[in-house]
Amino acid sequence: QGSQKRTNSTPENPQPKRTLSSRSPYTLFSPNSFSPGVTSSQKYTSRSSRGEVVASFGSVHGPYWNGGGGRSCTLKLFGSPEQNLTKSYKFMFQKAFDIREALSWRIEELGNVLKSHHHLDDFASVLLPAQEPVTVLGQISCDSNGKLNAKSVVLEGDREHSSGGQIPLDLSELKEGFLFPGQIVALEGTNTSGRRMVVSKIYEV
């Protein structure tokens, strides 16, 4: 007699290997007990409950507004007309050149604030070697896609003095300080080789 082979087939109604008993306390905190039973339409265009609240949590009160006795109000734009939006605008569709211009303008504006607040001299370039301590202006960045740490801090110099160049920072001689990506700071330190700046002091707003 030949050996009977076992056929491998997927059952039509598979049973889970591990089921939670109705008396188990874990069923009270399962996702099924907290998720509302909401069925979505197959197609977005075929929905019939547009604007209808299908699920809510807690007590919901409608908004209440009381007029001011028929008084009228007028809308006034804040700031100069060049800085206000007067027509349709697509969010997050800015051109790379416009983004760079906005960042450069922000660095220059905060650089003037740092210079006047801390009574600093003119800023130096982050790309030029300097044997004596110099003060540079720029934006804190990270040399990779990971988290910012003491070994991955990079300074993106301003456009006026450093032409947007980058330089790694050595924070070993820094007694205290707080840095985060995107922060606009003025740094004092030495750059003997032109490849790495040893920071001794941080000027922040």
From TrEMBL:
InterPro entries: DNA_pol_alpha_bsu, OB_DPOA2
Annotated stretches, region: Disordered: 1-45
Record keywords, A-Z: Nucleus
Record's GO cellular component terms: alpha DNA polymerase:primase complex
Compartmental location: Nucleus
Domain DNA polymerase alpha subunit B OB: 100-204
UniProt keyword annotation of Nucleus present: yes
GO BP: any one term: DNA replication initiation
Entry protein name: DPOA2 polymerase
Organism: Aramus guarauna
Organism classification: Eukaryota, Metazoa, Chordata, Craniata, Vertebrata
